[in-house]
Specification:
Elements (H helix, E strand, L loop, with lengths): L12 E7 H11 L7 H9 L3 E9 L9 H6 L5 E3 L12 H15 L5 E5 L5 H10 L4 E7 L5 H6 L2 E5 L5 H18 L7 H12 L3 H13 L3 E8 L2 E8 L1 H6 L7
Parallel strand pairs: 1-2, 1-4, 2-3, 4-5, 5-6
Antiparallel strand pairs: 7-8
C-alpha cells in the first residue's frame, strides 16, 4: 500500500506523532469516507525500525472520531484527546499540543533515531527542520494526499502519501467533477473543458497539466463526455458528466 519498501535497520528507534484529525477527516472528506488503515500504516512503520512510541492526537469529540478510539487502542494506548475544555471557545489546540509533545520528546530522549510526523499542516515543518538541523535526527513525514502541505513534505528526509491505493489523479478528478457540478448549478449552458481545467487548477492551486490528466482519466472511464462543437464560429470542447457512473466509480461529488 505504501509504495516501494526498503529494509531499514531494526536497531533504529522510532517515535511517531500522529495528527489523527488530519488522517481521519481528510480520508472522510477526500476519499469517499474511507477509514484510516492503521494496520497497514503500522506495518510500514515497523519495517523502518523499532517503534518505541506511536502517539495519537485528536479532538475526539468531533464527528465520528470518538468511535476511532477503540480502533487505535488495538495498536497503541498512547492517545491524547485535545478537546478544548472551554465549551464557549472554538479554538483548536491539537497542533499546539502535538508540537509541545514533539519538542519535549526531542529534548528529553536523545536515543530516538527517527521522528515520524503524520500530519498535513505546514506548521510542523519548523519542528521537522529543528529535529533535522539542530538535533541531527532523521525525520519521516506521512500525510494524506491532497491535504498535506508541500513545505512539510519537502522538509522531511522522506515522505509517504496516504492512501497508496488512491492516486493524485483520482483526487484531482474528484475536484474537477465538483467544479462541473457547481457550473451546472449555476445553469451554465455550455461547460467547456478549458473552463473546468482553469477553474479547478486555480481554486486548488494545482498545475493545469495535472488537471488535464485527471480530465483525460474521467473521459477514458466515460464519467465525462467531451464533444467538439463550433460555438460562435470557434471550436469548443464541451463537457458533460455522467453522475450515476461517477458515483459508481467512487467519486464523492458533494462535500
Amino acid at each position: 500500500m505504501f509504495g516501494n519498501r526498503h529494509r531499514f535497520s531494526q536497531e533504529k528507534r522510532i517515535v511517531a506523532f500522529v495528527d489523527y484529525e488530519h488522517w481521519y477527516i481528510s480520508m472522510d472528506t477526500l476519499y469517499n469516507k474511507k477509514k484510516p488503515d492503521l494496520a497497514a500504516w503500522f506495518a510500514d512503520l515497523n519495517n523502518r525500525g523499532r517503534v518505541v512510541d506511536a502517539i495519537f492526537f485528536a479532538d475526539f469529540s468531533k464527528g465520528g472520531l470518538k468511535n476511532e478510539i477503540a480502533r487505535i487502542r488495538l495498536f497503541s494506548n498512547k492517545i491524547i484527546d485535545t478537546v478544548n475544555p472551554n465549551p464557549k471557545s472554538v479554538k483548536d489546540f491539537t497542533d499546539f499540543i502535538i508540537l509541545d509533545n514533539i519538542y519535549q520528546r526531542a529534548m528529553s530522549s536523545s536515543d530516538v533515531d527517527l521522528f515520524v510526523i503524520f500530519s498535513g499542516d505546514g506548521h510542523f515543518s519548523s519542528a521537522a527542520a529543528f529535529l533535522k538541523n539542530n538535533l541531527n535526527k532523521e525525520v519521516g513525514i506521512y500525510g494524506v494526499g491532497g491535504a498535506t502541505s508541500r513545505q512539510l513534505r519537502d522538509t522531511g528526509d522522506w515522505y509517504v502519501e496516504i492512501p497508496g491505493g488512491l492516486t493524485k489523479t483520482f483526487l484531482i478528478a474528484q475536484l474537477a467533477l465538483r467544479r462541473i457540478k457547481v457550473m451546472e448549478k449555476d445553469r451554465m449552458k455550455l461547460i467547456t473543458e478549458d473552463a473546468v481545467l482553469r477553474a479547478t487548477a486555480e481554486e486548488n492551486k494545482m498545475e493545469e497539466a495535472d488537471v488535464q490528466k485527471a480530465l483525460d482519466s474521467l473521459a477514458e472511464k466515460s464519467v465525462i463526455r467531451v464533444d467538439n462543437l463550433i460555438v460562435d464560429g470557434s471550436p469548443r470542447r464541451i463537457v458533460k458528466a455522467n453522475w450515476s457512473l461517477a458515483a459508481s466509480e467512487g467519486y464523492r461529488i458533494d462535500k
